[in-house]
Amino acid sequence: MFFVWLKRYMPRGIYGRAALILLLPVVILQLVMTVIFAQRNYEGVTNQMTDTVLREVALVMQVVEAAPTVDTVSTAMQNQLAVLEMRVAPVSAAEIPSHNRMKWYDYSGRVMVARFKNKLPSFLRLDLTQPGAVHLYTRSRFGPLDIQFERRRISASNPHQLFVYTFSFGFLMTLISFVYLRNQLRPIKRLARAAEAFGRGRHVPYTPTGAVEVRAAGAAFVDMRARIERQIEQRTLMLSGVSHDLRTPLTRMRLGLAMIDEDDAEPLLQDVNDMQGMLDAFLDFAKGTAEGEAEALDPHALMQTAIEDAQRAGRNVTLLPPEGDGAGTVRLRRMAILRAVDNLISNAVRYGARAEVSVLLTDKTLRIRVEDDGPGIPEDLRTEAVRPFSRLDPARNQNSGSGGVGLGLAIATDIARAHGGTLRLGSSDSLGGLRADIIVAR
Asked: Where is the HAMP domain (predicted)?
């Protein structure tokens, strides 16, 4: 339970976690050194100096006890113990503090009080609040006495210097470590940016740098990116070549059918048109996401263009009012997004009577939704539906149109992934058919 609670407050980024790994040992080490110094060195020195003052106080008390009257105490101190530089003055009981006085941070003062209580039987109170002076109140045969001497005689001078040096050098070394850590993490962040850009269909120049392990990971990423790009290029060339080669015999067949009787040629001409549609779908799939570079586009204006094109083609589709509180532009491939939305609209009106398109734009996300009133796709078949050349005839209404070649949703999925997003299928709440969402991070 504790670790689950602690995990919520841990840094999310690699820079924050590396900084925590760096700072935590330094802080713990400084705290341990401070405690050890305070308990062993600082406390030991204070005890030694206090013992020296206690021996001097014992001499003072001997002189006081030997004086005939309280008025002769000062004279006796001046004659016998002037070298100790201590002043002794009688005080009344009302002038004695009710408790030992010291600053809240005066660690050596607490050590002194404990030492005086154990070693000086006549000890009453200790006042350490006066600047540079100590007032020691004791009992004598003449009543309470105030023995005054300098604070530097009972505690080390400038005891804070070690702490200042420790934390100053610790802070300096931490800054140096941060600079070095930043230089070490910069190649990792560059690799992450290059990988994120490639996932969104953008090619960012990247050269492996940094430590050996980071260079190895960067080189593996570059090789992987090159292989993926070669595979995409080979797929495009293969499908484009096959589709192009098949156009020539189809054209000859169309010309041949145009010369025979119209009634006899109509079924064959329909087959040729279907084959032409299949080839067009193959070409669309081959083009994939290679249509231009990403640019900053207004998604609302882009969808307005897509709906107008679909309506001119005779499709029953409506653009709903904008949703969300986001504004501005999103980096998109214009032709690729238009192709993906056109495929979704074509599927919607093929298997349903009408379709609706909506755009949700927030500060972090763009969502383009296409809904229809058709039969939809069962949940257990939605993963299969987005695969290339997959046709789910039992799940869709074949009587509403031609079955196609099963590339519409696959093309939309590829385009969404190329923008760093995804295509999600669900059930439409408003129309009751299929709901297809293209979701892209801004």
From this structure: 182-233
